[in-house]
Amino acid sequence: MIGSSVGYREYNKFTMNITLQDIKEARELIKGIALYTPIKKTGHFSAMVGNNIYLKMENMQHTGAFKYRGARVKLLSLTEDEKKRGVITASAGNHAQGVASNAQQLGIKATIVMPEGTPLVKVTATKGYGAEVILFGDSFHEAFGHAMELKEKRDLVFIHPFEDPKIIAGQGTIGLELLEQAPELDLVVVPVGGGGVISGIAIALKSLKPSIQVIGVQASNSPSVYRSFRSGKAEMVEAKATIAEGIAVKQASPVMLEILKKYVDDIVLVEEAEIASAILLLMERSKVVVEGAGASSLAAVLYNKIPVKNKNIGVVLTGGNIDVNMLSRIIESGLAKSGRLVRMSVFVIDKPGALQRLTTIIAGHKANILQVIHNRLSSEMPLGETEINLTLETRGQDHIESIISDLNAQGYKVTKQK
After folding, report:
1. CA-to-CA distance for 74 and 247, rounded, in angstroms?
2. For 239-263, how does the pLDDT look when each residue is reduced to its tens digit (9 = 90+)?
3. What is the span of the domain harbouring residue 389?
4. What is the reported pTM?
5. Could you give the CA distance from residue 195 to residue 72 in angstroms, rounded to a whole number?
6. Do residues 100 and 237 share a domain?
7. Residues in contact with 248: Cβ distance below 8 Å, sequence separation at least 6, in sequence order
8. Do 101 and 136 fall into the same domain?
9. Residues near 331 by Cβ (< 8 Å), separated by ≥ 6?
10. Do residue 189 and residue 56 come from a single domain?
11. 287, 308, 335 — which closes off a domain?
12. Which residues contact 307 (CB under 8 A, 6 or more apart)?
């Protein structure tokens, strides 16, 4: 059980009272190994939201995510006997790659248990670092349980993705960099899965600049930490599928929740379409590729989940390991959210010239028709009519509404599809 006493007993010899000094020591361990990732002040996103937006590019870290930092710190802390036994962990992808890559560099055998639905790009990359990959279960929760069983059976050292002071300290080095690169920051937004990265960042930031705010972000399809933060007790949710699979945790950790309540100011939710839109905008405007979990922080800022103005906001883009097979779906969803693509069905009289008349109206609005499908088989359709399903490339929501309004005015029955 994630975050239960079963998981935490592995670490009860440590204190979870991570300090700024722990984070500074972690940085010395990974200096010259982990990348000091760039921060980019973006004029476009700043203008969109009325705040100064700074993107912290952890998607450019080794293995494409911040997890490399904590994994390195943790593996360096192992005894020689522990290194010889080998390590095991559970991960939805980025922690897996961080552990596998560092284990390979340090000559440690690594076994990784990943949920069966983990994007292929993450599975392939983890195997590429020499780790044994075992796919098990439908969620991180189930993969975690199986990894704990294998730990006992094979006498391996378990590397917890977040409930570990070494892991948290390693991730906290991002906080040190943020204030060195942009000391003017008023607020920092961080994606939340298990809570390791936001805990480390928040401890570093609050220790150095107590006035700074730290806001966490979860996908609304997997809101375990969001709900737990508000109720004050660790909760389990029946999570739905999300493109932010890297932060999809079924049950919040009571261990991490205590840290979050102490150092984090709030946690907000973002919708799937908002995440997709953020991914698309990052590609278009900043020329960077960010996965769903990593882009959730920017989605929260762009879609006013944090209602502030004239503030300096740091947005941590935690990872860039996106499955290319999902990109077309995400791009399409992002285009629809921003009003640059729309699907609609229109009923027309089934006679020659009817389609030409319809397309002429659309052409008059300078919308590009991407797809046309005739549907004459619906039992709900009146005799003598046909349904035309259209996919249009448009310029925004106002453009879409103008097209629909004109079609309605000319007697067409129009239904906008989701």
Report:
1. 21
2. 788 999 889 888 899 999 999 999 9
3. 339-417
4. 0.86
5. 18
6. no
7. 92, 139, 140, 193, 219, 221, 222, 239, 242
8. yes
9. 276, 279, 280, 283
10. yes
11. 335
12. none
